[in-house]
Structure formats: structure tokens, C-alpha cells
Task: structure prediction
Amino acid sequence: MSKADRRTVLIYGCTNMPENTDFPKATYRYDPYRNYKFRLKWDGKYVAGISKVSALTRTTQVVTHRAGGDPATPRRMPGQSEYAAITLERGVTHDPAFEQWANKVWDYQNAETGDPAVSLKDFRKDIALEVYNEAGQRVIAYNIYRCWPSEFVALPELDANGNAVAISMLKLENEGWERDMSISEPGEPNFNLPASQ
Result:
């Protein structure tokens, strides 16, 4: 489609554009989802106030091999795959969810009294990361498996001259994630406000 045709569609609302396969139900939609509407859930409950989640990243190591009679360049094969740790950030509040989970990996009070310092039965959790569209409909979800906190920041650096929200941080090691394919593209809502008389 030419630039002029695209402009005609934008101005006059013509519907002769080619069908969009990125959004099978909302074929009129050309904008990808935004990164600012999401929720995180563990232990069956949404965790309040999370403002930032790092990227879900998987890296596969490259194994190189070359036999003596091969050409001068090595062969490249996939090796072990690793899932990067996920960092969660949220404003400091009275909700103890981050601290309670971090204390399951190592608890100062228990370690001092000789009690078990690690809650071996439940220090790992599966979590769900859900992404929402602009209308607040869940559109994508990922299940992240066998997570446990390897780093916890209870309070950030404090600054009497600062002007920022105090952020706590939880870094989660994990053993993999996959997209929840049971979440399908929703039908997008539409409305006219104010209603015509």
C-alpha cells in the first residue's frame, strides 16, 4: 500500500487495507500491545504495586566443533539454555510479600536462634505474568517456573535532598518460562460517549 493510500485510510476510514494477521480477531488493529499494563501473581494472589518487571530472556550457549578434515570454520550447535533472572520493582509500602518470600530463602532471626534458616518446602514458587491491553483485557500471560529470590532490596538509598519514590526490589532466579496458550486474543470493546439522544 502506498503512502497516499495509508493516509486516505487514516483520514477517511476506508477499509480496503490488507487484513492484519498479527491480530486475527481485531484485524483493524495495527498497534502492538503496550508495556505498561501488567500484573504479577504468586500463591494464587496478585502482588500489589509492582511497577517494573525486567525482560523474560532465554539464552542458548553455542557449542563449536571442528574435525581435522573440515574447512577452516567450525560448526556451531546449540548447547545448554539458560533463563535470566527476573527483577521486580515496586514502591515501598506495608505489604510484606517481597520480604516474606526473601525470608524463605534465608531468615536472619531463624539463623540466629539455630532454627532452619531456609524454608525448603516452599521457597520456590511458580508465578504468572499477565499483560493487558489498553481496555484492561488480559491478552498475554507467561508462566514462570521454580522461582526463588537471590537478591532482595528492602529499602533503596535514601536522600534527604531527593524527590523520588522509595523502590524495593526482588531478583528471582527461575528455571524457565512458557507462554500460556490458553489466553487468546479478546474481542476488543467499543462505545460511543456521550450516548446520542
About this structure: Strands lie at 38-42, 45-46, 50-53, 58-65, 75-83, 86-91, 125-132, 138-153, 167-173, 177-179. DSSP finds three helices and ten strands in the chain.
